[in-house]
Write a structure and sequence with these properties.
Blueprint (H helix, E strand, L loop, with lengths): L2 H22 L7 H21 L1 H32 L4 H31 L3 H29 L5 H41 L11 H44 L4
Helix pairs in contact: 1-2, 2-3, 3-5, 4-5, 6-7
Length: 257
């Protein structure tokens, strides 16, 4: 039985089980019986629509077709990525690139056809099918993006390898410079907070008020945390980028003739 029909049948089975629990196991209190019967009738109606009406069959057919295509594409993608991880020579990379480019072209054609179909749908039922197709388009776009990224960050010659390594190392230097500037700014904020905390609670006459000092130190801490938060987020993002670049450098360096 196709996948969509299996889902509908499973919903009906759940509805029947719900009715059995409500009416035979002592759960028939309040609105539970009404909800259970309503769920069962809705499931029966859905079952009738999907299995016996043209519109329901059309929706199921589109869903099953897209799910089958998706499984095939995902399986093919996993095979390609397995081969990708085992690449070690420029010649292997070049051969894999050709396959990946062909696959990207194929997926883009499928996406373009789907987008054309979406612009032609105008019936209420079509919007259900449109939702399924739009999710499929997002899936295709993610596969295309991953394949293209693999191509872009994998050299197929010594010349490309040198260019890519130079680019990655330059990007790492720029990020490290930004990180140093950010760290210096964060230290300045912390130093300013410590300096203000020392004089917290003192009036212009030099009189010290412990309660006022505690209140001001709390406010200084809140202000410091608020000032540091954006920098901490940016610093964490830079650290992730540098880590990824290090991985990319190791990946690019592994290839040889």
């Amino acid at each position: 039985m196709p996948q969509f029909q299996i889902i509908i049948t499973a919903i009906l089975c759940i509805a029947i089980l719900s009715c059995w629990l409500v009416f035979s196991k002592g759960f028939n209190i309040g609105i539970a019986p009404i909800v259970a019967i309503g769920f069962l009738l809705l499931s029966l109606g859905l079952m009738f629509w999907v299995f016996l009406t043209p519109s329901g069959k059309n929706l199921a057919r589109n869903y099953n077709k897209i799910q089958l295509q998706r499984l095939k594409i995902e399986s093919n993608y996993m095979e390609m990525m397995y081969d990708f991880k085992n690449l070690s020579t420029f010649q292997q990379v070049e051969e894999w690139d050709r396959k990946a480019q062909a696959k990207i072209g194929e997926l883009i054609n499928i996406t373009n056809n789907l987008e054309t179909e979406l612009t032609q749908n105008n019936k209420i039922l079509d919007y259900l099918i449109m939702g399924i197709k739009e999710q499929y388009i997002v899936f295709l776009a993610s596969i295309v993006e991953k394949l293209q990224e693999c191509i872009d960050f994998t050299p197929n010659s010594i010349k490309e390898q040198k260019i890519l390594l130079k680019e990655l190392k330059q990007q790492k230097k720029e990020l490290q410079l930004k990180k140093r500037e950010l760290t210096a700014n964060m230290r300045s904020i912390q130093a300013d907070s410590r300096s203000r905390s020392i004089y917290a609670g003192r009036s212009f006459l030099g009189i010290y008020d412990s309660k006022l000092a505690a209140h001001k130190r709390r406010r200084i801490r809140y202000q410091k945390e608020e000032a540091l938060r954006p920098s901490e987020d940016i610093k964490a993002a830079i650290d992730r980028q540098i880590l990824q670049i290090d991985k990319d450098i190791l990946w690019v360096e592994r290839f040889s003739e």
